[in-house]
Design the sequence.
């Protein structure tokens, strides 16, 4: 069964070569680039990847562009800061030959600040990335946290995808601010109306969920710090919803 690896990029010159190298086991590699201003495209072409450039609208739209443009039976989506392994490649080859599923979830090992996370929501962190192209599409209105919509059943892989997630605290903060804006907008669209105290009750609730329910305690001080940071941004999300609702009155 023909399978191609697809990488979405924007200014990923630090990661793109290593990511492409980790996908050599596929039948071809395609980079869908959002008009990078660095050497991403040049390095991708040097690495033997086909490059498609498309103006970024949102993550769902970029993935739909790949599903429409890449000619193959199966697509495996990988982010530039992720790496596959030979064991994962062998498992993927095995499951697509069976033809009993149209999509597969892959567990992901997340390295945050150089630490391999074992809990707090970052493990097993399943991602729906292996898709039979003619049986999958993305909701174009879902800007972030996109997930494929399948015409059929999905299964779960056992081998892991490696994700070199946030390397610095500054990078983490910048990404969470972005997610906070998106998620607050989603709550506003849904008509969620938090009470005046809701942002502050979210802090202990979210911390308990991350650190206890999702096993952040397994990560020691990293678990404490990341559970605390995520709780803070959960509070900020609801503060932004309340502020937007007051302004609109």
Sequence:
């Amino acid at each position: 069964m023909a399978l191609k690896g697809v990488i979405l990029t924007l200014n990923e010159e630090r990661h793109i070569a290593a990511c492409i190298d980790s996908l050599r086991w596929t039948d071809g590699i395609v980079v869908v680039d959002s008009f990078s201003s660095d050497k991403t495209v040049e390095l991708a072409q040097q690495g033997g990847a086909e490059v498609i450039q498309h103006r970024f609208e949102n993550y769902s739209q970029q993935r739909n562009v790949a599903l429409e443009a890449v000619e193959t039976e199966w697509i495996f989506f990988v982010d530039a800061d992720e790496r596959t392994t030979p064991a994962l490649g062998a498992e993927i080859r095995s499951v697509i030959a069976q033809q009993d599923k149209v999509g597969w979830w892959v567990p992901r090992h997340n390295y945050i600040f150089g630490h391999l996370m074992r809990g707090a929501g970052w493990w097993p962190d399943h991602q729906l990335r292996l898709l039979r192209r003619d049986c999958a599409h993305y909701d174009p209105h879902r800007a972030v946290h996109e997930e494929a919509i399948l015409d059929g059943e999905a299964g779960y892989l056992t081998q892991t995808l490696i994700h070199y997630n946030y390397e610095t605290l500054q990078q983490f903060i910048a990404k969470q601010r972005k997610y906070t804006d998106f998620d607050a907008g989603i709550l506003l669209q849904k008509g969620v109306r938090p009470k005046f105290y809701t942002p502050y009750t979210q802090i202990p609730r979210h911390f308990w969920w991350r650190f206890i329910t999702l096993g952040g305690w397994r990560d020691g001080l990293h678990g404490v710090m990341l559970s605390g940071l995520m709780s803070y941004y959960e509070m900020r999300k609801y503060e932004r919803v309340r502020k937007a609702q007051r302004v609109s009155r």
